Amino acid sequence: MAPSFLSFVSLYGIYLRRCFATSGLTSQFIDIDDHTTIHLWAPNPDHQTPQQQKPSLLLLHGFGPSAMWQWRRQAQFFSPHFHVYVPDLVFFGDSTTKSKERSEVFQAVSMGKLMEKLQVKKYHVMGTSYGGFVAYHMAKLWPEKVEKVVIASSGVNMRKADNMELLQRANVENVEEIMLPETATQLRTLTRLAISRRFTMVPDFFWKDVINQLYSENRNEKLQLLKGITLLAGDDSCKLPPLQQDVLIVWGDKDQIFPLKMAYELKELTGKKTRLEIIQNTAHVPQIENSTRFNNIVKNFLCGSS
């Protein structure tokens, strides 16, 4: 591994932390119970006054790097309008647990405990990819606390057949070869599936730096999280209970992790109060590839009337 002062990833991480800090967020550690500690970026409680009454927004990241790498542009955009909370899910970033639980339901319960500890009584939830799984469960578990729900690029309705098709598109045998890359070749495959643009000229040392800095920690635990997903349906039908809240689904038209057809089906499954927005020329991370369009769609949804 290259020294941190030679690592582009480490240097960019410094920039990301500065972006979160200048957005009015501070790095915090919260013990939500005797077993689990959550790291998050959140408003400084010492700087809030009763006049600063804004709605609350919880951002849940996808499988991959920690939260600050996935939500930087949203933290900057939404902080003037919302109290923004950006946690690392358990075993990502600096969030840890001694519990043996490994499901996305456990992640949802942990995030619910976090918001309770922070004394946030009502809040909107936005989750991307794996974070969308967690957001769905939070909405189902606490309909009286979770107000509006945004599910971005998240195959909550994924069947085993969809998983097999993903492996075929990636030309790999196991999903961890995509979601937990160990080699430059595997990370190139993930990038090809997740981002609409191509990075053919990027050298191996850069990919290896990304893997060493962002994908190496808690690898065994993350593998257990992949195997512990409870939402994976059978091959024939997906019986997903609808949500009570207003739901916004946002998808990139070129997503190859969860193809666009899954977005249309998810809209039907989550209920009559769901709307779908498709962002052209983006793939699995529209919040990064076209953050301006993504942010405005979400803000209009969250600030609009039901």
From TrEMBL:
Q: Which InterPro entries match?
A: AB_hydrolase_1 (IPR000073), AB_hydrolase_fold (IPR029058), Meta-cleavage_hydrolase (IPR052370)
Record keyword Signal present = yes
Q: Keywords on this record?
A: Signal
Signal peptide stretch = 1-21
The UniProt record lists the keyword Signal: yes
- Start and end residues of each AB hydrolase-1 domain: 55-290
| UniProt xrefs under PANTHER family | SI:DKEY-122A22.2
Protein name per the record = AB hydrolase-1 domain-containing protein
Q: Record the organism.
A: Gossypium lobatum
